[in-house]
Amino acid sequence: MTVAELFPTLRELPRADKLRVMQFLVAELAREEEPTLQPGATYSVLSPFNSHEAAHKLAQLLESEQSKQDA
Amino acid sequence: MRDAGQFYFTQGYDAFGVPDALPLLPLSLGYQNSIVEVSALLDTGASVNVLPYRVGVELGAVWEEQTTSVILAGNLASVEAKGLLVSAQISNFAPVQLVFAWSLSNDAPLLLGRMNFFLAFDVCFYRSQLLFEVSPKSRTS
Fold first, then answer.
1. Tell me, what's the ipTM?
2. How far is it, in rounded angstroms, from Cα B60 to Cα B35?
3. Distance between CA A38 and CA A34 in Å, rounded?
4. Which of B18, B24, B47, B93 has the greatest count of CB atoms below 10 A from its CB?
5. In terms of CA atoms, which chain A residue is nearest residue B116?
6. How far apart are CA A70 and CA A68, in angstroms?
7. Helix (H, G, I), strand (E, B), or coil: what is residue B24?
8. DSSP label of B17
């Protein structure tokens, strides 16, 4: 359903219902725009943060390959 | 940025139906005679680039032949990984060598991290415009 199709229906609503629709839309917009975290939910953080030893070893691997290419 | 390629965030929804957008960079990975087209997450929080197992296999890499074992941290701490050198082509830039922690898991995401993607490329994020720019590092840096 498009917004244009909704308007005639909304126009026919009684005043109280129009206000309820407004409140609903304001709440929906706020929910979408505010950063929210769900209580008790699990959020994955897959970044291998602080993998310094791995980074060091990979740097050595990269350097050894580049040394071979330069030779 | 000079010589920057522009890319769009990939839009979707998280597990709770909240709109989300990810900086996924399309690139071609080459290893020996194989080329694989992938999308990788730009992750400044990642110490290293990470390659899921299946992508390494698609590239023709053989796990047993890789001699550099690396240990990952965070959620990937329990996953065995080995170093793998791969050629990467991004946009129309000259190919560069990227070194990946090739994980023995398909659950690991394809990540571009600080060693060595962010050493080779500069990135600007414009999240409000759902846009990011990538350019090869300047020669002086």
1. 0.79
2. 9
3. 12
4. B47
5. A59
6. 6
7. strand
8. S
Q: Which of B20, B23, B62 is nearest to B40 (CA)?
A: B23
Q: Please tell me which residue of chain A has the smallest CA distance to B13.
A: A32
DSSP-derived 3-state class of residue B96: strand
Contacts of B18 in chain A (CB under 8 A): 32, 36
Helical (H) or strand (E) element with A15:
helix A15-33
Please give the Cα distance from B107 to B114 (Å, whole number).
21
Q: Which of B98, B141, B114, B105 is nearest to B46 (CA)?
A: B114
**Which tens digit of pLDDT belongs to each residue from A2-32?**
888 899 999 999 999 999 999 999 888 877 6
The beta-carbon neighbor of B74 closest among A41, A47, A60 is A47
Closest CB to A58 among B16, B70, B109: B70
Determine whether the interchain pair B18/A32 forms a contact, defined as Cβ–Cβ distance below 8 Å. yes
> Would you list the domain boundaries of chain A?
1-34
- In which residue are the tokens 């002086």 written? B140
Yes or no, beta carbons of A54 and B113 under 8 Å apart: no
Nearest-CA residue of chain B relative to A46? B75
